[in-house]
Amino acid sequence: GVVTRGNLTRFHVGGDDPKGSLSALGDDPLGASQLQWNAPGEGAGSVKQWLETTSLGRRVVNVSREVYGRHGVVEWRVTFVYNHEQVPPGSGDVVDLNVTQDPATNGVVYVPTVWETTKGSEGMSGAFEIDFEAPFGARSVAYNESAKRFERKLEEMLTVGGVAVERLSYPSAASGGWGAVAVAPEGERGGLEWRVKFTKNPGAYRGFTFPPGAGNLDSITVDGHGLQGNVPQVVNTVLRSGSTPFAGAFALGVRGAWSEPMEWQEAHDEMEDVL
Q: In a structure prediction context, what are the per-residue pLDDT tens digits for the chain, which is 275 residues long?
């Protein structure tokens, strides 16, 4: 006779609470109390739908399914592309899946086999230090520091006038573990990028350069000893050099007669006296 496999009674990440999750979403949110023994990888009634629903949106997975042999051995390959509270969200070493199955129609219990094909990477944590030759020393920056707090920490330094900071996903919003997109098997570095624009720089004209955004400043010094993750690293890259501020003196001449040199920032009343 025909022996039918038992349906899957558990298929979730160890530590997740499928019963509590499903209860919070209402009675039978997937349209079936169990997964079919040969459930599709994705789509309605799929392993993907079950895993993501029982995690209450804390995980996103890609699932493929293969059927082998005359007896219909089913294999699902699950790739975790988003894990809540991980940075980047594609990082994180997820614990083994908890998978159980009802007995087949002949009463035999076929125990599902779970194995890890690729170990997940460690997400970012900790902090690093930034300095700009400040007399009161470096500032500590969290691994996921907001752009606004990064600005304030730079502007606390007496050697910095004003800055504008933008925080971006690195290398992009759809790679390096971002955007719920699978990372290539060989791995791809992912993290955060802060772009700093110096909008007001210390100088000799009323305490600033002229214009205040001019000036080619030294690079920010970084120290990543407190940063944690999979081979953590802090890299400082100059994207564009600053312009040269106004400096020096000039003279005015009429019909061969020249004025005395005047400073570039000469006040109008002083210029009248020279002329």
A: 455 788 888 888 887 766 554 444 444 445 445 788 899 999 988 999 888 888 888 999 999 999 988 777 899 999 999 999 999 999 999 999 989 888 988 888 889 999 999 888 999 999 999 998 888 899 999 999 999 999 999 999 998 999 999 999 999 999 999 999 998 766 789 999 999 999 999 888 888 888 888 888 878 899 999 999 999 999 999 898 888 888 888 888 888 888 888 887 878 788 877 77
CB < 8 Å & 24+ apart, contacts of 16-24: 16/54, 16/55, 16/58, 17/54, 18/54, 21/53, 21/54, 21/55, 21/56, 22/53, 22/54, 24/56
Q: Are 178 and 124 in contact (CB under 8 A)?
A: no
Long-range contacts of 64-73 (CB under 8 A, 24+ apart): 65/38, 65/39, 65/40, 65/41, 67/38, 72/5, 72/38
Buried/exposed 118-156: b ≥16 CB within 10 Å, e otherwise: eebbebbeebbbbebebeeebbebbbebeeeebbebbee
Q: Around Cβ 206, how many Cβ atoms within 10 Å? A: 9
Instruction: Say if pTM beats, i.e. exceeds, 0.70.
Output: yes
